[in-house]
Write a structure and sequence with these properties.
Elements: H1 17-28, H2 35-44, H3 47-61, H4 65-72, H5 75-85, H6 88-99, H7 107-116, H8 119-133, H9 137-144, H10 147-157, H11 169-182, H12 191-200, H13 203-217, H14 221-228, H15 231-245, H16 247-259, H17 266-276, H18 281-292, H19 296-303, H20 306-316
Pfam families: Annexin
InterPro entries: Annexin (IPR001464), Annexin_repeat (IPR018502), Annexin_repeat_CS (IPR018252), Annexin_sf (IPR037104), ANX5 (IPR002392)
GO biological process, one term: calcium ion homeostasis
């Protein structure tokens, strides 16, 4: 796995799991709850330290920290604290399981995770899904989706994208021409060509293909996808293209739209803030500033309230004025 260093949350030092466990127990014991202590501790320790705290909590008090958090906290703040406690390795598998369970599938979550994770991360997710839920992720997803949307999800689930290497310019030219003929030049669209090329070629190759495509067609590949496809497939193709160009820019846009306009998509806001907090949230903040002239800190400040807001702002880190 790549070593990520652009997160806002890093290992806390000096760290004392027992002292943290004791402080958390005290914050939840008896009448009333000291939310401030809970949010300060959980947002300033990294995920592996939070797991050590949970283990110390059980050792010292014979109680389950997550169960206690669930019984003491409520609403979005509870969801955020419980999400922070979820072990990193199971976070994505858990989100996917909930996206495909019960009535209706949450295509937004499937799209976000499958488009943005690396092949190594994807292989890991499939393995964990099998271990934790004794089910095959691909079977579950194909059972709940259909059409070209399903096919592209399956391609991405194979996690067989070509590794980055030296780019062959004649293959770049060829792929760009194939995409041009499959979309703009064709009456109707050959979706399969888009799925194969966008789902399997290396990141560096595709970045060159997008440039070449612009030269040949006069359009950005996103404009063509927008015109030639629709619905869930369109959203997934666009997410894949955006992640090929820049994963932090993709998440900056995701966060921006989770808070823009009336109402907040709290599920997305929590999922992205927690899952990227130790990976690339600093880069995401930068991209949000660059592409939307917005500070993540100020957007959260304006769109949320209470302890939920305090905790999100601590995860966000600084303000990009």
């Amino acid at each position: 796995m790549a070593k990520y260093t652009r997160g806002t949350v890093t290992a806390f030092s000096p760290f004392d799991a027992r002292a943290d466990a004791e402080a958390l127990r005290k914050a939840m014991k008896g009448m009333g709850t000291d939310e401030e202590t809970i949010l300060k501790i959980l947002t300033s320790r990294n995920n592996s330290q939070r797991q050590e705290i949970a283990s110390a909590f059980k050792t010292l008090f014979g109680r389950d920290l997550v169960d206690d958090l669930k019984s003491e906290l409520t609403g979005k703040f509870e969801t955020l604290m419980v999400s922070l406690m979820r072990p990193t390795y199971i976070f994505d598998a858990h989100a996917l399981k909930h996206a495909i369970k019960g009535a209706g599938t949450n295509e937004k979550v499937l799209t976000e995770i499958l488009a943005s994770r690396t092949p190594a991360e994807m292989r890991h997710i499939k393995q964990v899904y099998l271990q934790e839920y004794e089910a095959n992720l691909e079977d579950k997803i194909t059972g709940e989706t259909s059409g070209y949307f399903q096919r592209l999800l399956v391609v991405l689930l194979q996690a067989n994208r070509d590794p980055d290497g030296s780019v062959n310019e004649s293959l770049v030219e060829q792929d760009a021409q194939v995409l041009f003929r499959a979309g703009e030049l064709k009456w109707g669209t050959d979706e399969e060509k888009f799925i194969t090329i966008l789902g399997t070629r290396s990141v560096s190759h595709l970045r060159r293909v997008f440039d070449k495509y612009m030269t040949i067609s006069g359009f950005q590949i996103e404009e063509t996808i927008d015109r030639e496809t629709s619905g869930d497939l369109e959203k997934l193709l666009l997410a894949v293209v955006k992640c090929i160009r820049s994963v932090p820019a993709y998440f900056a846009e995701t966060l921006y739209y989770s808070m823009k306009g009336a109402g907040t998509d709290d599920d997305t806001l929590i999922r992205v803030m927690v899952s990227r907090s130790e990976i690339d949230l600093l880069d995401i903040r930068q991209e949000l500033r660059k592409n939307f002239a917005k500070s993540l800190h100020q957007m959260i400040q304006k769109d949320t309230s209470g302890d939920y807001r305090k905790a999100l702002l601590l995860l966000c880190g600084g303000d990009d004025e």
